[in-house]
Amino acid sequence: MQHPPSDHQERVQSIARNRLQFLTISVLLAALLATAFWLRWQYLDTISLYVDEFTTLWAALRTQELGAPIMPSGVLYTRGLLATYVTALVGAVAGLGYTTGRLPSLVFGLATILTIFAVGRRAWNVRVGWLAALGLTLLPEAIIWSARARFYAQLQFFALLTVWAAFWAVQESSDRNRTSLSNSVSRRHLLFTLFFLLALFSQEQTVLLYPPLLAGMVAWRGWRYLLRREVWPAHALILVGMGVRYAIEILGQPGFFETIQAERPYVAPLFDVAAAWPAYAPLLVAPERLPWTLVGLLAVGVALMALARSGWRPAQLAVFDQATIFFALPFGFVLMFILTLVGGQWREARYLFLVQPLWLLLGAAGVVWVIDRLLMPRSNQQASFFSSTEKRRWIATAGASALLVWAWWQPATAVLTRQVEGYDRVLEYVAANRQPGDVVMSPQPPACAFVLGEPCDYYAVQRVYEEFVIRKDGVLVDRWTGAALLNDTQHLIDVIRTAPRVWLVTDAFRLATRYEDDFLRTVIEQFDPAFAERGVTALLAEGWRAPPPYDNTQIFEPPLSFGRLALTSWRATTARPGEPLYVELTWQATAPIDRQLNTSLRIVDADGVIVAQQDGPPTRGIVPTNLFFAAPLPDVKVLTVPAELETGDYRLEIVVYDVESGAVEVGPLEIGALPIQ
């Protein structure tokens, strides 16, 4: 006959079960962190630095030298102020470089995975924490920003803690002693304040969290709750922190805020959700993410129905539903704010990054709610970790985890092959090959300064630079490095004429979009590609190069169509047997071009025989054709006229073809007669 276990035996069994549960969760989390570390380290170790990372590293270097990120221009670098100091500290210990500069983000990224698990476990249950942590491990944006030397991983970490601390602050304390209860409330709010201020000084976007969290506190406890002596000082500190942060911005960056608001304002009451939605939609409704968003909406809907049944008293709800509603408040507010009020030129997916953990938690809550409804226990007893019902729930959660990995693994690993502009590689080449007296210019002065160890000579750009310059000693200079602004074609010509060698380090996109036609034409005519990698090119001019004496010109009005390219004009030097013939074609795009097109210029005799030919990319490849727009760009060809060729009239023909496939787009088409003398 079996006897029921004694109280002592039950306690021993309970302790054993708790230990096994703790060990199981610990092993799963360790595997998760190992996977997260591998994904993030692969990105950190193989992907070039995003251009803004150089600004963080340069600011950290200045902080090491001066104790504050004071730039050579005299301004204070205020973006990610706390992250700058963290990066400088790590650099002081381990040496400041690409890897060490990215390490703080890696640490914060891994810490956020642990934090989201802990938050999910405390606010909902352990399965919600697990699913949310798994989602954050595989989230492509989290992989990217956890491996870049920027402030976003740090911001996300403190933002998540801020929301959790606010939720914890409105929960009833189990301590019924009046003094202890008051101290508990005060500690919780001060912890909320601490995390908020750490997030605020990580990035100023944190201010968007305060209104919904304040609204949540009022909804849970009433507005009089904010006036309690153990509550209001915490909020007063937050308001003071906001004021200090604003003062640092205004005093440290004179004129910056005003210029931004004038040129491309942060906040503009556009209310154009249809125009803003495409920038953020992939984060929520991409095929692999849509199910997560839908179950998150389901969890919020269920919680709202429970709230309605409670007479709209959120504090009376089950903690699971309370957490769902409370965490949905800041996510929904930030999403609606950036969809309706953020300026059109600031619509970027990264500005939703600080609240993406909330989206993951809501989706995980929805998945767990569905599982629990489908596997409800037959009795009203609380299911233990090893009960049959709870085992089935964990099996279902494991199935949901497998589906999540199956759907998100490919997007997670895809970012590891998506290179960014290789300013690091190209500037390292310039640093190794620069000679005394060389002039270096770039539209990315922080990258130039950090890699070369000193500011470059010129900040070379003609468009979208106003917010990045400040007047110093009567000259406009780059805010971050003090490099003089070069935004005039004649100034560029003077530098090329006087300096022994001039380097221009730029990426193709900026070269195609940030310069006027005459400036770009000068670059194409005077510079030669010296080294190129990952979309960035080091162009080198070695003294002024006089243009050939063109004496044969033809202009097409309207331009001569070659499909997506149009020939506006051409000019040529005098053609003589045995001498080189210089021909400059001028092209412009008439439609978007999605590939590299080359041109083949041919001299053809009366019988259709090609007597001379040169193939190559327009602009000598300096600007790829997928970045051709309406601006006319030169295409210089040099053909060798055969010495034995008879004098007389010939014709010029052009073929435009796809480089990759060799398929002819258009041609051959005759563009004019060519007399050979």
Write out key terms for the chains shown.
677 residues, Immunoglobulin-like, 3 domains, 6-stranded mixed β-sheet, 21 helices, 17% strand, elongated
Question: How does this model look, in words?
Answer:
The protein is α+β, with helices and mostly antiparallel strands and 677 residues long. Helices cover 51% and strands 17% of the residues. It has 3 domains: 17-47 and 78-417, no CATH class; 423-541; 552-676, Immunoglobulin-like (Sandwich), CATH 2.60.40.770. The longest helix is centred in the first third of the chain and has 40 residues, at 7-46. The termini are far apart.
Total beta-strand segments: 16
Distance between the termini: 120 Å
DSSP helix count? 21
Which percent range describes the beta-strand content? 15-25%
Give the proportion of residues in helices. 40-55%
Sheet with most strands: strand arrangement:
5-2-1-6-8-7
Indicate the structural class: alpha+beta
